[in-house]
Amino acid sequence: MKRRNLIGMALAMTGLSLVSACGGGGTSGGSAGSAAYSAGNTSVVNASEATGGTLNYGMTNTPDSLDPGNTYYAFMWNFSRLYASPLLTYNPVPGADGLKLVPDLATGLGQVSDNGLTWTYHIKSGMTLSDGEPITTAQIKYAVERGNFAKDVLPNGPSYFQQYLADPAKYQGPYKDKSPGGLSSIETPDDTTIVFHLAQPFADFDYLVTSPQTAPVPQSKDTGANYQSEPVASGPYMIKPGSFNPNTGVTLVKNPNWKQSDTPTVKQYADQINLTYNISGDDLDNRLLGGSMDLDAYGTGLQTAARAKVLNNATQKKNADAALSGFLWYFPINTQVIDNVDCRKAIEYAADKTLFQNAYGGAEAGGDIASTVLPPSVVGYQKFDDYEATTQPTGDLAKAKDELTKCGKPDGFSFNIAVRGDRPKEVQTAQALQQSLQKINVKTDILQYPTGDYGTSFAGSPQFMKDHNIGMNTYGWAADWPEGFGFLSQISDGRAIRSAGNSNMEMLNDPQVNQLLDQAAAAPDAGTRNGIYGQIDKIMMDQAVILPELYAKSLLYRNPSLTNVFVTEAYGMYDYTQIGKK
Amino acid sequence: MITFSLRRLISAVILLLVVSIVTFGIFFVVPRLAGQTTDQLAANFVGKSPNIQVLHEIEARLGLDQPLYEQYWHFVKGVVAGEDYDTGTQIVHCSAPCFGYSFKSQLPVWPQMLDVLPVTVSLAIGAAILWVVTGVGVGVLSALRRGSWFDRAAMTTALAGVSLPVFFTALICLALFRDTIPIFPDAGTYIAFADNPGRWFWALVLPWVTLAFLYAALYARLTRAGMLETLGEDFIRTARAKGLPERTVVVKHGLRATLTPILTIFGLDLGLLLGGAVLTETAFSLPGLGHFAILAIQNNDLPEILGVTMLAGFFIVLANLVVDIGYAVVDPRVRYS
């Protein structure tokens, strides 16, 4: 009897293993789609005022921080607006109008005075934080100080305020400088007024105050690096007390002290929002398609396997949007290593751009072939095509050889290409470039480096690039704010070249470009600025310092049960402040 | 026996110390030999484009500007006795075992590891029970029915189990039993045992089966081979000749002799898994030590990498210690060797 039991148990266990471990693939498709493919790019899908329900966001990694003063991830600048309201934000509508700025905590856009050196904002009165404390401009000033001047404690966010505010040199940040006035270049004459004094005119300052660094932080509640576990909320939601776990995620619940009239641009439709960290990529996609997850918080789209599945399934495809992410995939051409402009032009003509597109997943999921530095979703973009990238995307070898002759190297030359070895798509694009260049007898070797130190110690180190004869490298770039200056300044300004962590990898130091950037920064008129950005783009392409690959697209998937879903061009992903559930 | 155990315990402590020196050396000495500066090391903590003044502040705060032997001393002292740590806003005491603060999240490493440890322990222990029972059971039956349909089917399945990668099996399981036929709707999430024991169990069935399938296959083959060898020994023939029941011959004499090497491997496998079942945790999105380690590596987060390596090392050394002592209990000759 016992022996029979033993046999039975063994068979049962083996059977369980077999049944569970084998079997076909295939997932349920979720409920029927309610909108068309890419409808979210131009319209609000499932517009509704319905409230209630729980929104489930998932992501494959973790945020850099939930602290609004300590984050630099694009999706966090989008997501954090649910619990941390900045002074201004982006117009919550699909299409190009979504790039316009609208007030969030503030009553209006900045008032400029003193020849562009002073920017004044007023906030609405009567607003309160989640802990019941009234929102004041002193809290906003403190938030800017801690996020920009205490990098040893809150290292992640950008330092634009430190860069543009007047006389920041002596100020050591609020944790070291305990003087009652704090930073002198920010004044708060009353509880609803805040005045920023700049070192030089900076016309894009309104964009800077869309940063979560301007969300109010009460000094008495600030716990430095630990503030991320339960930041005091100024938006429609707040972190559910005790819900933050750095390994598993966080839950947001309604902020009882928030009123719709406080920040009309942000909605409070769902009762609760769960953000789950560390879900494997394929599993996250399966959950999205199966309906148990609502959105991929990261906003970079489906993985390769799910992309193919969705694009080949009419029902699922209705729930997907091929959205411009605002990213440009490109190869900087290092002018230190390839110093002759005609040699660089030969590369521009020879490259087969269709291979780049294929490597990134095709036109729908990877992106459109690029011919400019500025992507179309950035204010200031002007369409032009100097090297037939869109008219002859497979390359023009005859013109490439002509350019080689002009540069005095008709028999070709050689250099190395650097790639992030742990990014297969980038490796593939480098191999595609290598094949293209071989056709004009330009010989290249591909050198692979880890992503972690790529931007600091390898591609971001001019000396390293020169020492290793690296003439080109794979890279991608997106603006911190969707306007020409935000996109161009770090990759085109010769004065921004650094010995490590350098983003101007083409090593362009053109006095005309530098001067144009200064003019744009000081120009109060948007039309003038946009004209300048077009000029800079043209100069960079004339100089052939960048080989544009693609205006990147992400294939985003929206759960059909979601309401008010659309892509905000400001972040190149769904606008998280508007979404509700049926 | 006590002297033997003490001797082994001291060896284990020395081994852990060596592991700590080697690990520390790999992460802090080797990069320096390869040209990494303390500025570059500090840059891991500071986010994008830091200025040199901030880098120097970080170096001083994290002690990266100190000689390496002092840094190692502080590391060991932190693990054994705790350390005071400057968070930038205040000095806090980081209680032992203190593995420092994460470069990325600025949170203390040890509480984070403690937080994910139950996930890995739940996964490893459950899977271990499953694979030992199935693996050894199937191995014994296959040996007893050598050449039968059961033996062939079991060994074919075992071959599949050894060959199929965990991430493949895991995704198939999830697609089939969670997404298509939702028998295990919670699979792919971790529900704490204290929150809901029933859902904890049900959510872990697929990860257990997936992980156990791999190991059970290996154990089945090992047990089968061991049993076949043992059953051919003279003492088995003698036992049968004495008229002992077949069950006694197989279980008491045959299986016992076969189990000794199996137990050794089991101890090491379990120790390894407690250090993190990287693939299974990643495939099932379980936030355990393995997944924690992967993220730490992706983020260049040295304190977390160091912490998880030491903890994984601790489990392996502990497993070795238990196996060694277990040997001595089973076979007294070991104590005198």
How would you describe this structure to a colleague?
By secondary structure, chain A is α+β, with helices and mostly antiparallel strands. Chain A is 29% helix and 18% strand. Chain A has a 5-stranded mixed beta sheet with strand order 8-9-10-1-11, with helices on one face. A 4-stranded antiparallel beta sheet of chain A has the order 4-5-7-6, covered by helices on one side. Chain A is globular and about 75 Å long. Chain A starts with a helix and ends with a strand. The model of chain A is unreliable at 1-33 (pLDDT under 50). Chain B is globular, with a radius of gyration of 24 Å. Chain B is an all-alpha fold and 337 residues long. Chain B is 75% helix and 2% strand. Chain B has a two-stranded antiparallel sheet with strand order 1-2. Chain B starts with a helix and ends with a helix. The mean pLDDT of chain B is 86. At the A-B interface, α1, α6 and α14 of A face α2, α3, α5, α6 and α7 of B.
How are the SSEs ordered, and which strands pair?
The complex is a heterodimer of chains A (582) and B (337).
Chain A lengths: L1 H20 L32 E5 L15 H6 L8 E3 L10 E3 L7 E3 L4 E5 L14 H13 L10 H5 L21 E5 L2 E5 L7 H4 L28 E3 L9 E6 L17 E5 L4 H10 L4 E2 L7 H8 L2 H4 L2 E13 L8 H10 L2 H7 L2 H4 L1 E3 L27 H10 L7 E7 L3 H15 L4 E7 L1 H8 L3 H6 L2 E4 L1 E3 L6 H9 L18 H12 L3 H17 L3 E12 L4 E2 L3 E2 L4 E2 L5 E2 L1
Parallel strand pairs in A: 1-10, 1-11, 14-15, 14-16
Antiparallel strand pairs in A: 2-3, 4-5, 5-7, 6-7, 8-9, 9-10, 12-17, 12-18, 13-18, 19-22, 20-21
Helix pairs in contact in A: 9-12, 16-17, 16-18, 17-18
Chain B lengths: L1 H32 L4 H9 L5 H11 L5 H14 L1 E4 L4 E4 L14 H36 L4 H15 L2 H15 L16 H35 L2 H8 L4 H29 L3 H6 L5 H10 L3 H29 L2 H4 L1
Antiparallel strand pairs in B: 1-2
Helix pairs in contact in B: 1-13, 2-3, 5-6, 5-8, 5-10, 6-8, 7-8, 8-10, 9-10, 10-13, 12-13
The profile of the biggest β sheet of chain A is: 5 strands, mixed
How is the largest sheet of chain A built, in terms of strand order?
8-9-10-1-11
The largest β sheet of chain B comes out as: 2 strands, antiparallel
Strand content of chain B: under 5%
Mean pLDDT of chain B: 86
- Uncertain segments of chain B are none
Strand order of the largest sheet of chain B: 1-2
Say how many strands of chain A there are. Answer: 22
- The whole-number mean of residue pLDDT values of chain A reads 90
How widely separated are the two ends of chain B? Answer: 13 Å
